[in-house]
Each structure stands twice: as C-alpha cells, then as structure tokens.
Design a protein that fits this description.
- The strands form four sheets. The chain has a six-stranded parallel sheet with strand order 2-1-3-4-5-6, sandwiched between helices. The chain has a six-stranded parallel sheet with strand order 7-10-11-12-13-14. It has a five-stranded mixed barrel with strand order 15-16-17-19-18.
- It has helices spanning 14-29, 54-72, 84-89, 91-96, 112-120, 166-170, 178-190, 208-211, 216-224, 244-252, 269-274, 281-294, 313-326, 353-378; strands spanning 5-10, 33-34, 42-49, 76-83, 102-104, 125-127, 148-152, 154-155, 174-175, 195-199, 231-234, 256-261, 299-306, 330-335, 382-391, 396-400, 412-415, 425-434, 437-442.
- The longest helix is centred in the last third of the chain and has 26 residues, at 353-378.
- Helix 9 packs parallel to helix 10 and helix 13 (313-326) packs parallel to helix 14.
- The protein has 445 residues and is an alpha/beta fold.
- The chain is globular and about 60 Å long.
- It starts with a strand and ends with a strand.
- Strand 11 (231-234), helix 10 and strand 12 (256-261) form a beta-alpha-beta unit.
C-alpha cells in the first residue's frame, strides 16, 4: 500500500490547523501523497473537526456527509474523522455514520499513518490514547501562506470556564518546552516565514506548568531574537495574566506588534462569576486603561457572549455600556451556545434564543459604529502593510497592517506602480473605507 493518496479537511481554530499540519507531515513521512480533491479520487479522506459550539459541530457533520457521498460514489476508499468532534462523540460517530472507517482522538494523532492504512484495508475502529499523548513537537506541512505561520506554544486548558468543553476535549494545559518552540520558530523563519502568530488556548499561561510561573514574556524575547522574523503576534490572551512584564516586553520590542487578542466574554461581574471567570466592569476598565498606557497605539481584539444564563437586562446594559466606552478596535460577539456536559448547560435562568441573538446583534451594531469612526480617523495616515497578494479583478494589491491578524480581521487594498510579492512590506497612504476594509495607494513621498 505505497503512495496512498490522501485528502485532509481541517476545520475550526488555528490551533486545530497546526494539528492538521502535523498530521499531514506524519502521513507524508510515511509515503502518503496529498491531494486537494480537485484532481480525481483519493484513497482516504481525513476530516479534522471542531466541536466547540453547535455551528462548528454542524459544519463537521456536513463535511462527514460530503465525504460519505464521495465514498458511496467510489471517489474514496476510507473516511477518517479526527479532532475535537471525535473527542466529544467517540464511538457515536461510527454508529451514526456507517461510511466512517476510523474515529481518532487527539492522543492517537501520532498513529495517524497506521490508522489510515487500516481504514483503507477495511478495518473499522475507534482510536483513543490518553489526551496527554498528543504530540506537541514534530514536523509540519504548513498550510498557511509562505510568509506567515501559526506557532502553537501549548495544548489544552485548565481555566474551567463553565460554558466551555475544551478542558474535557483537549485535556489540561500543557506547555511546550521553550527550546522546542524556539527551534521550530527558527525552522519556520529559515523557510521564509516573516510573521509568527503565537497561539494556545491561553497563551498568557505559557510556562506555568513547566517553570512554576508564566513565561510568555521570556518566550517572546527569545522569538524576537530569531533572524528573519519581522512580526510576532499574540492571540488568545487571558485577562488575568496580562502582566506589567508582558506589556513592557511588547512595548519595548519592535518585532512584537502592538496587537492583543483578549477574549473578555463579558463585563458584568455577576455574569463573569457564573462563567467561572474573574473580574468585573471596574477591573476590566482598569486593565484596558493599563494596556493602552503602555502602548497608546495598541489594537485590542476581544469577544463577548450574550445571553449567558443569568444575564438580565441590567447585566446586558453593563456589557453594552462597557463596549461603548472602551471602543475596541476589533470585536466579535456570539450568542451563548449551551454545550452538553458543561456546568452552564444545566444552569437556571437560561435566556431564550431570540433574546440571545438580539443582544448579540445590538452589540455588533454598536461596534460597527465604533469601527466606522476609527476607520475615518485613519484616513490620510501612512501604514506599513504586509502584502498578501494581488487581486486581479480589482487590479490592486492587498495585505494587512499590524492592526489585523490573518483570517479573522480586515484587509487593506492598495494600488501601486511598483511590483510586490507576497510577504513584502509596503508603505500605504490610506484614502478610503469600504465596509470594514481600508483602501489606499502606495506612499511614494
């Protein structure tokens, strides 16, 4: 069974994407050949699923059904389901989807080549080693563009927010050793990666389990010393662990972009306590003020949940007023999605679905007006843009400033008489706004 052809579909978050990249590298090392499914049939389809919220589960199931249709049409011999949905439903997937040949827990990712070969041979089984056996190190077949890549520094989570199933799905928080992370970062830089995007379930907790205290600031300083790396971006920061040391390192090192992804989830103290999160309106206002005092140009991205059990009109208004006053640069708001097996699933005072949705839309409408004002303030300014590509239809280049993370934030479209390649930097004069995106031209002054 040499040179088996495989296709992999990866769903969900950047952390899941890194897992997918490691799966592909292991399979390629074992002789598998990868296909994007546009050039005919494949021997095995691997679906790396997300199972965090209901919408993610639906997307995963839709992809399983699409693969099942491929199998019934003779376009593939086997279907392997991995990732978070596998951890949530385990053997149920085999029962509900007879076309699926293997269900793989994250602890068995290291065995993916053998599992796929078994599946192609017709063996149907579930594979679940302990979660702690998920490989944290190893080769990756990077799926992002050549000029940027995710860098996962830890796995799992120990925060135990009452709405979240991640600790049960992924296990307790486990940091990678600093030397392993730096080695991987150097290899990425040697391959042409200029922007490292640091990810984990809680990046600010990094090192606590290995070194007795958080070591993200120390790790960032090490990453900044790597030749070839020009931008370092941090996602998934936990508000309790934004320390003065971390802010000082971000302020003082020009490679670390002034961008913080800070999922706050709510601003009302009562709701946050029900979520098993600390803080309240006053303390969070103080945190935002402190961050901005260190870096006046900082871009703060956050997320909120509306309609959590116990959120009444008073608690929602606290959140809305907080959003109005804090004027976040980037914000996402999601209606609470009750996840079976989490403590909040059985909480009293559940909020009806329409109210959840209406409140979320109200927050996003409020945020839209804030973003419009902030974008207008940018007009006439020159920003450094990381070029992502060329849009032939619009006849212009597009890219991102330090204000925007790939795949989740907005783009800057600009014209130029010069030629740029992906991964180049350009100085762009901002001249217009279209929806959330910015328009400009190369600054030649």
């Amino acid at each position: 069974m040499d040179n088996l052809k495989a296709a992999l579909i990866s769903l969900g978050c950047p952390k899941n994407q890194v897992d997918a990249e490691m799966l592909i590298a292991r399979l390629e090392d074992d002789g598998f050949v990868f296909s994007d499914m546009t050039d005919g049939s494949v021997d095995v389809v691997i679906i790396n699923t997300c199972g965090f919220i209901d919408e993610a589960k639906k997307e995963a199931i839709e992809n399983i059904l699409d693969a099942a249709e491929m199998k019934n049409n003779g376009e593939t011999e086997a279907i392997v389901v991995t990732g978070c949905l596998s951890e949530v439903y385990k053997e149920e997937i085999l029962k509900e989807f007879p076309e699926v040949d293997a269900v793989v827990g994250i602890g068995s990712n290291g065995d993916i080549a053998e599992i796929c070969r078994n599946a192609v041979r017709g063996k149907r089984d579930a594979y679940f080693r302990p979660k702690c056996e998920l490989p944290l190190n190893g080769a990756r077949h990077v799926l992002s563009p050549d000029h940027w890549a995710y860098l996962k520094i830890a796995e799992g989570c120990s925060n135990r927010c009452t709405y979240c199933a991640i600790p049960d799905i992924r296990g307790d928080f486990r940091s990678r050793k600093k030397e392993d992370i730096l080695l991987e970062a150097k290899e990425l830089a040697d391959a042409g990666v200029k922007e490292l995007i640091v990810v984990a379930q809680d990046t600010t907790r990094y090192g606590e389990d290995l070194y007795g205290e958080p070591k993200l600031a120390d790790l960032l300083e090490g990453l900044a010393e790597i030749d070839g790396v020009e931008w370092i971006r941090i996602l998934y920061c936990y508000p309790d662990r934004i320390t003065d040391e971390l802010l000082a390192v971000m302020r003082d090192n020009e490679k670390i972009v002034h961008y913080i992804d800070l999922p706050l989830q709510h601003a009302d103290g009562k709701v946050l306590k029900l979520m098993n999160r600390t803080g309240d309106d006053k303390s969070l206002r103080g945190l935002i003020e402190k961050i901005r005092s260190y870096m006046p140009d900082v871009v703060i991205r956050t997320t909120f949940i509306t309609g959590f059990p116990g959120e009444g009109e008073k608690e929602f208004e606290t959140l809305a007023e907080f959003v109005r006053d804090m004027r976040f640069d980037r914000l996402g708001c999601f209606a609470y999605s009750a996840q079976e097996g989490t403590p909040a699933y059985s909480f009293e005072n559940q909020v009806d679905e329409q109210t959840k949705v209406d409140r979320g839309e109200n927050i996003m409408d409020l945020q839209r007006s804030i973003v419009d004002e902030k974008n207008e303030e940018l007009m006439g300014k020159v920003v450094k843009v990381f070029v992502e590509g060329y849009d032939g239809y619009l006849d212009c280049y597009f890219g991102r400033s330090y204000m925007d993370a790939p795949e989740i934030d907005t783009l800057i479209y600009f014209t130029s008489e010069n030629s740029f390649e992906e991964g180049d930097f350009a100085e762009v004069l901002l001249t217009d706004v279209r929806d959330y995106d910015l328009i400009g031209r190369e600054n030649i002054d």
